[in-house]
Structure to design on (306 residues):
């Protein structure tokens, strides 16, 4: 089976931020095409001014990031992750895939995705897998489609484990950047009375609605398309945001308005190198109660300061 190549075209001035986001899905590496300083670099290295005309004609206002997804991973989830994170960061992007037909890469990875236990109370079951033993665990039936959130990614697993600790019977949960809806559905299965999910990608919202139906929790889950909290009202016992550090910092400026004095704020999707920056951003309004880390990713649980 082939690997899938994802080619991302972004404005040259956004390259550094875009590289950081791409690194979230492929920590093992990728390569960048950037021709902005081509002539200067060739002269410095080779001391000649003879450069292939095709290279000279490359668009120097754009950079290309080439990402490679292995056959057992979900390219659709990776593309959704990139689109959502780029949108949150205000990075205009064009994303293309090569390596095999789209229908192939949307489905080939599924043979490697099996039911997996998460934390102490949950089991994630791909909807196409019928053989599993959940024991006493609550089963989340999930098909991410073109949205982010299978439960395989460290950020999602960290959030699920954190939700286990803090969601109580009758709680209302706000899920910012809901993706496939996996965190909202898990919250209801853990006892929440209501989960409200918002995502900037309408495709993710449609997928979340479908997954809620499959899990028979549609009456307790609501999903809307929106940017952070612009479609949110009311207050919640738990707010969970599995997004990027910059979006969490922005969200943290007004998320207090949607929380009560006992609410818990769960933040994930944070690269460990940016942990201190996020902690600094929430310090004035929140008290950290726990920090969970896995494979370079950080999940922070905090409560409103008295």
């Amino acid at each position: 089976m082939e690997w899938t190549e994802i080619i991302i075209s972004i404005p040259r001035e956004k390259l550094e931020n875009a590289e950081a986001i791409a690194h979230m899905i492929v920590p093992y590496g990728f390569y960048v095409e950037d021709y902005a300083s081509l002539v200067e670099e060739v002269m410095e290295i080779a001391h000649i001014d003879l450069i292939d005309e095709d290279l000279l004609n490359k668009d120097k206002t754009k950079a290309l990031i080439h990402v490679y997804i292995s056959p057992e991973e979900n390219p659709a989830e990776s593309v959704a992750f990139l689109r959502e994170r780029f949108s949150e960061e205000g990075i205009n992007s064009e994303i293309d895939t090569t390596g095999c037909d789209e229908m192939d890469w949307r489905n080939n990875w599924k043979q490697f995705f099996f039911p997996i236990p998460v934390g102490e109370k949950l089991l994630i079951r791909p909807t196409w897998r019928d053989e599993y033993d959940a024991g006493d665990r609550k089963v989340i039936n999930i098909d991410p489609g073109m949205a982010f959130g299978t439960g395989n990614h460290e950020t999602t697993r960290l959030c699920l484990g954190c939700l286990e600790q803090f969601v109580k019977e009758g709680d209302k949960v706000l899920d910012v950047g809901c993706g496939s809806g996996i965190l909202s559905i898990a919250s209801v299965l853990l006892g929440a009375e209501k989960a409200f999910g918002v995502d900037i990608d309408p495709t993710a919202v449609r997928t979340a609605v479908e997954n809620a139906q499959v899990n028979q929790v549609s009456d307790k889950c609501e999903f809307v398309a929106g940017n952070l909290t612009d479609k949110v009202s009311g207050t919640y016992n738990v707010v969970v945001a599995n997004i990027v550090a910059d979006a969490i910092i922005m969200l943290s400026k007004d998320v207090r308005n949607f929380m009560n004095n006992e609410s818990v704020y769960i933040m994930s999707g944070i690269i460990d190198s940016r942990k201190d920056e996020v902690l600094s951003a929430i310090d004035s309004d929140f008290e950290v109660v726990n920090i969970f880390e896995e494979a370079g990713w950080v999940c922070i649980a905090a409560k409103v300061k008295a």
In short: The chain has two domains: 4-108, 155-304.
